[in-house]
Design brief:
The complex is a heterodimer. By secondary structure, chain A is α/β, with parallel strands linked by helices. Chain A has a single domain, classed as Rossmann fold, CATH 3.40.50. Chain A contains eight helices and 13 strands. Chain A starts with a strand and ends with a helix. By secondary structure, chain B is α+β, with helices and mostly antiparallel strands. The chains are: A alpha/beta, B alpha+beta. At the A-B interface, helix 2 and helix 5 of A face helix 1 of B. The complex binds flavin-adenine dinucleotide (FAD) (2 copies). The site of one flavin-adenine dinucleotide has 22 residues of chain B, from strand 1, strand 3 and helix 10.
Chain lengths: 264, 379
Amino acid sequence: MKELTIIVTVKQVPDTAEVRIDPETNSLMREGVPSIINPEDLNAVEAALSLKEQYGGTVTAVTMGPPQAQEVLEEVVAMGVDRAVLLTDRAFAGSDTLVTAFTLSRGIMKLGTFDLIICGRQAIDGDTAQVGPQVASFLDLPQVTYADRIEIVDDCAHVQRSLEDCTELVKVCLPALVTVLGGINRPRHPSLYNIEKACDETCVSIMGAGDLKVPASMLGLNASPTGVKKIFEPERTTECRYLSGDEKEMARTLINHLKDQSIL
Amino acid sequence: MDFEPTKQQMMARKIARGFAEQELEPFAQDRDEKMEFPADALEKLADLGFMGISIPRNYGGAGLDSISYVLIIEELARACASTAIIVSVHNSVGAYPIYALGDDAQKEKYLHDLATGRKLGGFALTEPNAGSDPASIETTAQADGDSFVLNGTKTFITSGSTAETLVVMANADRSKGGRGVTAFIVEKGFDGFSVGVKENKLGIRASDTCELIFENCRVPRVNVLGGVGKGLSAALNALTFGRVGVGAQALGVARCAMEECIRYSQDRKQFGKPIAKFQAIQWMIADMATEIEAARFLIFKASSLKDQGKPFAREASMAKLYASEVAMRTATKAVQIHGGYGCMKDYKVERCFRDAKVIEVYEGTSEIQRMIIARNTIG
Ligand SMILES: Cc1cc2nc3c(=O)[nH]c(=O)nc-3n(C[C@H](O)[C@H](O)[C@H](O)COP(=O)(O)OP(=O)(O)OC[C@H]3O[C@@H](n4cnc5c(N)ncnc54)[C@H](O)[C@@H]3O)c2cc1C
Ligand SMILES: Cc1cc2nc3c(=O)[nH]c(=O)nc-3n(C[C@H](O)[C@H](O)[C@H](O)COP(=O)(O)OP(=O)(O)OC[C@H]3O[C@@H](n4cnc5c(N)ncnc54)[C@H](O)[C@@H]3O)c2cc1C
């Protein structure tokens, strides 16, 4: 078995489900909200590192985001990732999932040949689970989503997919892209041994629009075919009604009420 | 003057905090109750470099500075003070003296295993009749050819039954008093070395505190650490570094207690409002926050002096004294703020209270710290 060149995509996300929304711009207000690595991306990193431990090779982490997204790269280097690439440029701002995936795929093309791309299934903020499949499509790679096990056999990966009502075992030729579920493994902790490397200025390479040789018209907000029309918190309309009377009476009222609502 | 930790130091703290919150905090209460040694957590800590925090990388350590070291101990202690003291003792008085005083052969043989956490370290000075006055130890080391024969009993030794490599103090020439005290590297398997009573303690209960018995225990002469008769200064130097870590441990306990109070006082309502709205409660928390900050800077000062290679015995004692007393005061107020609930085992502050008291005693009582500070201040 030859050594594996693995790429993992990681996204910096706000640390809370209660992200506030700017009513003017319909976008997330990230300021003041602590940032973390998207949880399933930690699983992607763990999957990549354990494959590296089994078969040898290298793991490169890629993220697209603002300059402070470098933090998540440093953290995955502390977990044991070999190299990290930050795609950052004002021109990338406002990308929708399609353009995010396009930009990531262009960044990945710059890294040379590889055997496997591992993504988290879904980001906890955007929540679309689209970026992985879109990257595969831009790079013309076979894709296997919802993985909860990955094994390498010769030049293929045997991937177990955990679907709603069944488990599917898929054999896919490398290079390929796999998106992983949170249950695939338990991500390791970053190590004190790797601090020096993670804090070394040369550990993260930075690429902007110019490095990708992509015209600005294909990047960012303007190139994004989808836009957010409105973001709002769902109104809570539950009301609690108390029934009175004896048990029979209350039961009858309840049944009538459920019938009125076409529930019964 | 810059009060912000460096990028590396912040990363060390973040790694320790993440580990502590996930792997220590959820189990700390149960371990305290059952006096259960955190063996599995220590194994994971070893893999991640926590057992050789400031031992250079070429000996298998993580090679971090002393500021990183205290930030790490503080985070561990905030989650589980018992695990923090095991790690602190191992690093500062277990492994460090072998790094600082050991010859090449000793480092080769013992340091790598300690720094990588393959073996747990311990430090045995205290005896039934010698605590604050280490020069008066009664354990003897009789020279006999290529070895010394140790006889005596040590008491209250952290990791006593679990440590595999211990720095043990014994007197090679009692006629010389303190100048006969000698440090030995003792392996768990040495003939004549056995573990006695395991203590049932007030606090720090998940750490194993034991009696050690030496009955004609033969220790090779090559295991003398730092020279015959040089043991007292070896012990005091190791303890100086140890005290900075114990200060950080106290700080972690104090922070844990304060954080519990901040949460609890905003939830708990009396007289129609959260008790945090009462000035009496606010002032207690304000005092906690102020003292915790002051303790932190004393600990940073001592660590920073150590990193610069300057004398730091006075500052180490100040850090240990002040931080442990802050932990005790904070924990006492924290129990008060929690009212009846604070007296119950279900609440963390109850454990903090018991842990803080122990920290005021070990690695030199408050009185002994004041003695050292006075000696270094008055002259
Ligand atoms: C409030 C809000 C509004 C949005 N509006 C739109 C919209 O109108 N139209 C639209 O198409 N999109 C929209 N997005 C999505 C936004 O563009 C996405 O955050 C981004 O494109 C990634 O998609 P995702 O978060 O759904 O990631 P997912 O597709 O759920 O992520 C899957 C995996 O892809 C990888 N990945 C995702 N993003 C990155 C990255 N930046 N760098 C590296 N790896 C990454 C990670 O491995 C991740 O686990 C919106 C998001 C939010 C939060
Ligand atoms: C949980 C725990 C773990 C420990 N781990 C270790 C370990 O790993 N290795 C080890 O060697 N020891 C260990 N010890 C022992 C600890 O360091 C001693 O208990 C401590 O130094 C005090 O000694 P003592 O108990 O003999 O008290 P004593 O020395 O008898 O002191 C009794 C009281 O007298 C006071 N006192 C003594 N001398 C003076 C003076 N000159 N002036 C003013 N007051 C004075 C003391 O402050 C104290 O209040 C541990 C103790 C505990 C509780």
